[in-house]
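Saturday, quiet lab. Running sequence design on the structure tokens for the scaffold JK sent over.
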């Protein structure tokens, strides 16, 4: 059950995101991007969660972002393809791997909406090292596999660093895909172009990505796991509140900058 939520008291004024701010972040940022990649075989599975529980996990300066007074925790498995620096071509093997992240949605005191990652599992050791060192993201090594059989995507992940249970997902994307409408729950969940990350000293950074708006469908989900959320410290019950699949997008990655 959700409790009545209000943002924590603070000495500064805390602004909540406006619909204009959410839409404006889809524009290409100024400056040069660092890297390019493609995201494909995307599944967005989200559970409604008490905002107070989320807020208790966030660093100072970030505030839980809500839709209709509810916070959301997402489990997102997908494939990373053609990952490379902006000035280099994609390289065989190195530029293709899998990722599964556990995330929630936050904003800063200026009302900028973004993503906060609790974990990002990946099956490429170099990608884990680079993301931890240069992007301050909580990446973990995992054994992962994905396959397509008769139109259904099968995805499996098991973290290497602990005695974890394997997580399995299976879904068939919907027949038709379309952009989501601004102001909808679907827009709130998937149209996110800003991430926040904390370095070992607790300093908060923000980073932008740019891609065409997602084209999503309502998939048929035949298998799912909440194990990644459990590893992140959350207890989820039942199936996801929202399940979406998305067509591939080509993504530009921009540098991290101090968030405040």
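Result came back. Writing it out in full:
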């Amino acid at each position: 059950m959700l409790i009545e939520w209000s943002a924590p008291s603070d000495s500064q004024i805390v602004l909540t995101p406006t619909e204009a701010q959410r839409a404006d972040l889809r524009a290409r940022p100024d400056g040069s991007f660092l890297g390019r990649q493609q995201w494909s075989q995307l599944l967005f599975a989200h559970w409604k969660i008490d905002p107070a529980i989320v807020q208790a996990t966030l660093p100072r300066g970030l505030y839980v972002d809500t839709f209709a007074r509810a916070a959301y925790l997402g489990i997102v498995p997908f494939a990373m393809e053609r990952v490379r620096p902006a000035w280099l071509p994609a390289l065989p093997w190195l530029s293709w791997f899998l990722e599964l992240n556990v995330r929630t949605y936050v904003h800063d005191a200026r009302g900028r909406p973004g993503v906060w990652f609790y974990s990002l599992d990946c099956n490429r050791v170099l990608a884990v090292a680079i993301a931890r060192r240069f992007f301050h993201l909580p990446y973990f090594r995992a054994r992962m596999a994905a396959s397509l059989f008769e139109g259904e995507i099968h995805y499996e992940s098991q973290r290497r660093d602990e005695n974890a249970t394997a997580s399995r997902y299976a879904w068939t994307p919907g027949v038709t895909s379309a952009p989501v409408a601004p102001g909808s729950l679907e827009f709130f969940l998937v149209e996110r172009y800003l991430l926040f990350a904390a370095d070992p000293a607790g300093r908060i950074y923000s980073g932008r990505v740019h891609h065409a708006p997602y084209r999503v469908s309502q998939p048929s989900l035949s298998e799912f796991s909440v194990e990644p959320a459990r590893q992140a410290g959350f207890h989820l019950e039942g199936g996801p509140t929202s399940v979406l699949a998305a067509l591939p997008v080509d993504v530009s990655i921009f540098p991290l900058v101090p968030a405040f």
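Notes for JK: Residues 1-5 have pLDDT under 50 and may be disordered. The radius of gyration is 17 Å. Ask whether to fix the surface positions before the next round.
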